[in-house]
Write a structure and sequence with these properties.
alpha+beta, Phosphoribosylaminoimidazole-succinocarboxamide synthase, 15 strands, about 240 residues, SAICAR_synt/ADE2_N, purine biosynthesis, eight-stranded antiparallel beta sheet, 2 domains, ATP-binding, phosphoribosylaminoimidazolesuccinocarboxamide synthase activity, globular, D-amino Acid Aminotransferase, Chain A, domain 1, five-stranded antiparallel beta sheet, about 30% helix
C-alpha cells in the first residue's frame, strides 16, 4: 500500500493515503543516536516499532487520549490522522536519566518527585535545545494555552503507559512524545511510541534504545520482549 510521498525522516516515511484524509507511516529499519551521528539498519526494527506504536496508541485511545492512530497495516505501516506537526519533543520524566543527569547532576534511575515535562526544539543541528513556555510563545512555536494543554495531555498519557508497564513488571523512566494539530485545530499525539522513544527497565535490564546508544549490542532482542507484552493489547 502506498500513496503520495510527503516526507521522509530518519526512521519513517510519510505518505498521503488514497482517501486524501489520512496518512500512511512506514517505519524503516533505521536506528539513530546522537542527533543522527550514529546510524545503523537493523532487520525487523521497523516492524517491531510500528506494531508497538499501534498497540500502545490504540491502548491510549481506549483510555481517552487523542492519538493519530487509525489502524495497523502489517508488517510495518500505520494509517494515521493527518497532522501539522509541532517542531517539539515533549519529554515526560519519572526518573533522572540521560540528558537530565548531564545537565543537572544526580544519579541515573533516581526518582523525581513527580512527572516532569520538558520541551525541546527539534533540531539535530542545534542538538534539540531545551525550551520553556515563554520561548515557545516568543518564537511563535506554540501559545501558552496550547503548551498547557500539551503538558496536561503528556502527563496523562505517560501515567497511563507507566501503569501499563508496571503491571508487566517494567519501570518506565521517561518517554518522549510529539504532537500536532489535526485539520480541526485539535492537539493530537503523533509520531511514535516505542523503545526508541522511552526508557524502559526491568530488574536492572535495559529494554530501550540506550542499548544502542551505549554500544551494548543489538537492541532488537529486548524490543521483541516489549512487543510481545504489548500484544496483550488487542487491536
Amino acid at each position: 500500500m502506498s500513496g503520495t510521498f510527503l516526507y521522509e525522516g530518519k526512521t519513517k516515511i510519510v505518505e498521503l493515503a488514497e482517501d486524501g484524509q489520512s496518512v500512511i507511516l512506514t517505519f524503516k529499519d533505521d536506528i539513530t543516536a546522537g542527533d543522527g551521528a550514529k546510524h545503523d539498519v537493523l532487520d525487523l526494527k521497523g516492524q517491531y516499532c510500528s506494531e508497538i506504536t499501534a498497540r500502545l496508541m490504540h491502548y491510549l485511545n481506549t483510555k481517552g487520549i487523542y492519538t493519530m492512530f487509525l489502524n495497523y497495516i502489517p508488517p510495518n505501516k500505520i494509517r494515521a490522522r493527518k497532522l501539522k506537526m509541532i517542531p517539539l519533543e515533549v519529554i515526560v520524566r519519572f526518573k533522572k536519566a540521560g540528558s537530565f543527569v548531564r545537565r543537572y547532576g544526580g544519579n541515573e534511575g533516581e526518582d523525581l518527585p513527580g512527572p516532569l515535562v520538558e520541551f525541546t526544539y527539534k533540531s539535530d543541528v542545534m542538538h534539540d535545545p531545551l525550551m520553556c513556555v515563554e520561548h515557545l510563545e516568543a518564537l511563535g512555536i506554540l501559545s501558552r494555552e496550547h503548551a498547557t494543554i500539551i503538558i496536561d495531555e503528556a502527563k496523562k498519557a505517560a501515567m497511563l503507559l507507566k501503569e501499563f508497564f508496571t503491571l508487566h513488571g517494567f519501570e518506565l523512566w521517561d518517554i518522549k512524545f510529539e504532537y500536532g494539530f489535526d485539520e480541526s485545530g485539535n492537539i493530537c499525539l503523533g509520531d511514535e511510541i516505542s523503545p526508541d522513544t522511552m526508557r524502559l527497565r526491568k530488574a536492572g535490564e535495559i529494554f530501550d534504545k540506550d542499548i544502542y546508544r551505549r554500544n551494548l549490542g543489538n537492541p532488537l532482542e529486548k524490543y521483541e520482549v516489549v512487543l510481545n507484552l504489548c500484544r496483550s493489547i488487542l487491536l
